[in-house]
Write a structure and sequence with these properties.
Largest sheet: none
Radius of gyration: 19 Å
CATH superfamily: Phosphate transport system protein phou homolog 2, domain 2
Order of helices and strands: HHHHHH
Distance between the termini: 33 Å
CATH topology: Methane Monooxygenase Hydroxylase, Chain G, domain 1
CATH class: Mainly Alpha
Number of strands: 0
Number of helices: 6
C-alpha cells in the first residue's frame, strides 16, 4: 500500500539506527587496537553489525518505495542510505582482511591513525543525523560538522600518502616483502575509502542544508 503521508520520523529513525551501528563498529575498532589477539572474535562481531546495517538499509528502501511524500528528497534519502552503508562495508572489509592476512602484531601506526579519523568522523555523523530532523534550528551546527568531516577527510589523505610512501620504500624487495606490501595496500585503501564515504555523507548533509535554507 502506498503511504501518501508517512511520518517524518520513519526515515530519521532509520538513519539514526544506521549511525548507531557505525558507532558500534567504531567501538570494535578500538577493541581491535587494544586487544589485537582477539581479531577473530572482533571480525565476527563486525560482520554481524554489517548484516544488521544491511537490514536497516532495506527498511529505508522499503519505506521509500511505499512513500510518495518524504521529509527529504527521495534521491537524498537513497544517497545517504548508500553512503552510510558503504562506510560500514569498508570497516567490515578492513577488519576481515586484517584477520585473513594474519597481520602481525603490533599493527602499523598508519592503521591506528586511519581508525582515529574514522572514529571522529562517525561521531560527527551521529550528531548530524539527529540534527537533520530540524535543519533550520541546527543549520549552523550542522554546517560546522560538515566542515569538520571534510577536514578529517583531508587528514585521511595525508595518512594515506605517508602510509603508501612507507610501503613503497622497502629495501631489498623479496617475494615475502612484496606480498606484505600488497596486503597492507589493500587494508590502507579500504580504510581510506571508509573515510571518503564519511566525506560523501557530509556532502549530502550540505546538500540538504542548501535545499532547506
Amino acid at each position: 500500500m502506498i503511504n501518501l503521508f508517512p511520518k517524518d520520523e520513519i526515515f530519521y529513525n532509520l538513519f539514526e539506527q544506521q549511525a548507531a551501528k557505525l558507532k558500534e563498529a567504531a567501538k570494535i575498532l578500538d577493541q581491535i587496537l587494544a586487544n589485537p589477539e582477539n581479531i577473530k572474535e572482533y571480525a565476527a562481531q563486525m560482520k554481524k553489525i554489517e548484516v544488521e546495517m544491511d537490514s536497516i538499509g532495506y527498511s529505508v528502501l522499503d519505506n521509500l518505495r511505499k512513500s510518495l511524500i518524504t521529509p527529504l528528497e527521495g534521491e537524498d534519502i537513497e544517497l545517504l542510505r548508500q553512503d552510510l552503508d558503504s562506510i560500514m562495508d569498508c570497516i567490515e572489509k578492513a577488519t576481515n582482511r586484517i584477520l585473513i592476512y594474519q597481520i602481525a602484531i603490533p599493527y602499523p601506526q598508519a592503521i591506528r591513525e586511519y581508525i582515529g579519523i574514522i572514529k571522529k568522523a562517525i561521531e560527527e555523523i551521529g550528531f548530524a543525523v539527529k540534527e537533520i530532523r530540524n535543519v533550520h534550528k541546527f543549520h549552523d551546527l550542522l554546517y560546522g560538522r560538515c566542515q569538520k568531516i571534510n577536514r578529517l577527510e583531508n587528514e585521511g589523505d595525508e595518512v594515506n600518502r605517508r602510509a603508501l610512501k612507507n610501503l613503497m620504500g622497502i629495501d631489498n624487495p623479496t617475494p615475502q616483502k612484496i606480498l606484505e606490501v600488497v596486503k597492507f595496500k589493500e587494508i590502507y585503501e579500504t580504510l581510506e575509502s571508509a573515510i571518503d564515504f564519511c566525506e560523501d555523507v557530509g556532502n549530502i548533509f550540505e546538500i540538504i542544508l542548501i535545499k532547506n535554507r
